[in-house]
Amino acid sequence: VIARHQLVLLTAATSIVAATAHPIAQAQTSPSSIRYKGKAPVSNTVLKLSLPKPKEADLPNGLHLMVIEDPRAPQVTMQIVIRGAGGYYDPADHFGLAQFTASNVREGAGKRSSPEIAEQLERLAATVTVNASMSSEDATLSASALSEHFGEVLDLAADMILAPTFPEQELARFKTQTRAQLMQQRSNPNFLANERFSQAVAEGHPDGRVSPTVEALDKTTRDSMIAFHRTHYAPDHAAIAITGDVTMAAALKAVQARFGGWAKSGAAPPMVADPIAVADPGVFLVARPNSVQTSLIVGTQAIRYTDPDFYGMTVLNKIIGGGPTGRLFRHLREEKGYTYGAGSQLDARRYRGTWVASTNVRSEVTEAALTDLIDELRQARDIRIPDSEFADAKRSLVSAFALAIESPQAPLTNAITRWRYGLPADYWDRYPERIMAITQDDVKAMATKYLDPKKLQIIAVGDRAAAEKVLQKLGRLQVFDAEGKKIQ
Amino acid sequence: MRASTFIRIVTIAAAVSALAPGLQAQTGPAIKFTETKLGNGLRVILSEDHTAPVYSIVVHYNVGSRDERKARTGFAHLFEHMMFKGSENVGPGEHFMLIFGTGGNMNGTTNKDRTLYYETLPSNQLDLGIFLEADRMRSLDITKDNLDNQRNAVQEERRQGLDNQPYGKSEELIDELAYDNPAYEHSIIGSMADLNAASVEDVASFFKTYYAPNNAVLAIVGDIDSKATLDKVRTAFESIPAQPAPPAVDMTEPKQTAERRLNVDDPLARLARVDFAFKVPPRTSEDDDAVRVLATILSTGRSSRFFQSLVREQQVSSGVQAGRDSSIGPGLFFVSATVAPGKTAAAVEAAVLAELERIKKGPIAGWEMDKARNNSKRTVVSGLTSSLNRATQLAEFASVFGDAGRINQRIDRISRVTAADVQRVAATFLTAENRTVVTTTPKPAAKGGQQ
Fold first, then answer.
1. Given an 8 Å threshold on Cβ–Cβ distance, is A12 in contact with B296?
2. Of chain B residues 20-39, which have a CB less than 8 A from chain A?
């Protein structure tokens, strides 16, 4: 355990690359930052692997159970995903209620008070957290413990989900703490960039809301949380996924004993619409005085998880910005030295999601970096991906499955994804062949379809004087302050 | 060529200690490994685990920012970046491509005491990981272009992690104020001016001195055959010449005799914060385990004393964290408390100090000790499914303590700590004359200008 500020130093100050991701490849036309000597011994075999599959069962109340038996270590990790209890289903006059409700279930449950819950869990070095973000369909409980404590932790988790008490005095304390967090997050440039981008691509949709307002916090009452919990926490749209040193038989018995009495809603799972299609480009500046870097996002609406374009977009994303081998990292950092890191991300869920490229660059090179970044998108549209770069990208995606098998979390996450979108049982077994089937023409078509300059949203957070003139050249500029207010 | 080779198979389960009253035996799972010293002094640790088709390779070099000479702060970390820019048989950028292109993962990381490189790869790529690490230990390719490029990247890393973040300046200043010995007083990332001053000659000399096989530990863990792997390692590494031992760094820190204090105006911060740093003994000290238990009781989770008292009940702070830094030598025990809106830094400081007095004097509950013990057990258990975690720990214990077998003592060491030990280290180290206090005050931003 080390103090957070030390962690900031250690993580931000000392790694060769900022985040771990899973990237790519070379090319005849490969950028000058890479030179292949071709002397390292590489096995061209891609291990044929099958991810561990869960055993599954349904409780009579509709709760779906998935168990991956993994006896490697005496521990258990669990997630309970409750579809319909996330911020997507906030009341129209109370955005943030889902998040506040989820956060407060640990403030009192069953016969236990807030400090008793904390003490009981932490004495065992177990964790149970419940979250429901504003732009999520779900409330999610995540728990982990030594397997010897699994029963005790499951008792607590069941109390939190089924019998939260929402004590008034803890709500008052929660409000004080949350007010401070709402203030603090505005000092983070990446929060500000993400907030502005989400607004630009999903205004009026839950995906456009990334943080509650102080007003929404203030108007939250015990009764509003009780009502939200009663109407949105239902087992027939929920799943429990467990991995670790536990058998299906034991898990089923334990889950049935605690969650068997959870009353089903009998209703169909709630739905919302896709975010409205964005028809125009956007250029936004968030003025953050005293910034020494400009934080950039260039992004666009993209696809749903279940769209046929998912595989093509996955490969395209890998090539442009999937980690240290992506083009953005290679060009903006390794060739130009504008930044510590640059990459891209595909966010595909039930409804139309996004693709974003992002980087933080010193203020003086804002224009040069933004120009290069946008040009990467043009190249992806206009120029066929070289053979070797393309092959490496696909091989990277497929061969990364070996590492996923080592992690207890990855197969669990994959199982939940398969449940969430109703995918077939062999979905992950067939994933590699779907990736390998993608062609260079497919990827070019994806770039043309989704990286359309007429729909791109460009966000810059930083010193206004350094960025304003640059951004004005790119279109009609809207300027916001760090409080989220439009100032021009 | 094969001088002092020895192989030691360690199969001892962590020894069960004589148990303190009221706690059960918490002997952890034993990790088996072999340890071999090559003729050139490279220590090689191998540990088999066939539960996933994966292995991790770690090279732990015994060099960090403590070894930097004057006016070259940040150099150890800048050098780390150069290790990815090519060697005799690996082109610049090729390393990234080979690792990620085969489905692997990798990184490098520098702290005050060591520089660590790692790759996790599918097990059919064993030759690749060994080749890449051996080639750059043998023959780093040092060019001015590469240095200039990575200097830029590192300077952006500094801006992103420190200069463009709230409290960044305070975090750098508290070390400078607390330490007297230059080895630890400067930041790992270094100053912009010193980064600008670094030359290719510096890189070449640093490489020769510190990146020698006799100054490193190599650990390979996972789906490997130890015997075959050792043969491959010998072939790849044993002909890399040893170098004279690097100069020893004087780590001694004079005893602090009076409180040190600084106020920092921060235009990027929204809330005030109070940071404390208390000097604590090196990690190799017998008191280190008690210091860690102290941190757990004070600040781990919502049941911690700081959270319950300062955040939940008094509501003077919106968040408190505490813990010892990772340094091997004389360390700092940090407490960092954010001031809640409408409260004062003085009130937060008083509340923190009151909690420190309480733990020195008052009783420590049995559940608080259980919490610390179970925490160490959880940490050990959850590390079991990660070949990288195991390799990193084995290399670290071998390098710092000269005993990789310490990996099997982690749970029992913490179990042996008593409440009286915790009170004793709190009373000894968390004192007024042994502390440094930095208060950060949000400063209204001057329009458009620099701070």
1. no
2. 29
Compare CB distances from A292 to B152, B163, B445 and report the shortest one's residue. B163
Q: Which residues of B touch A14 (CB under 8 A)?
A: 77, 80, 109-111, 188-189
The 10 Å CB-count burial string (b at 16+, else e) for A417-447 is ebbbeebeeebbeebbeebeebeeebbbebb
Rounded alpha-carbon distances, angstroms, from residue A156 to A67, A110, A128, B6: 19, 9, 8, 51
A310, A430 Cβ separation under 8 angstroms: no
Phi, psi (deg, nearest 5) at residue A284? -130, 140
d(CA B32, CA B37) in angstroms, rounded, equals 17
Q: Report how far apart the first and last C-alpha atoms of chain A are (Å, whole number).
A: 45
Q: Is A175 on the interface with B (CB under 8 A)?
A: no
Measured distance CA(B360)–CA(B353) in Å, rounded: 11
Q: Please list every residue in chain A whose beta carbon sits closer than 8 Å to the beta carbon of residue B370.
A: 123-124
pLDDT tens digits, B171-210: 999 999 999 999 999 999 999 999 999 999 999 999 999 9
Number of H helices, E strands in chain B: 16, 12
Question: Within the 150-209 window of chain B, which residues sit less than 8 Å (CB to CB) from chain A?
Answer: 150-168, 170-172, 187-189
- Report the residue from B304, B326, B341 with minimal CB separation from A2: B326
Are the C-beta atoms of A44 and A36 separated by less than 8 Å? no
Q: Are A128 and A157 in contact (CB under 8 A)?
A: yes
The set of residues, in sequence order, having a beta carbon less than 8 Å from that of B97 and lying 6+ positions away, is A24, A25, A26, A34, A36, A325, A392
pLDDT tens for A140-153 read 999 999 999 999 99
Contact B131, A40 (CB under 8 A): yes
pTM over 0.90: yes
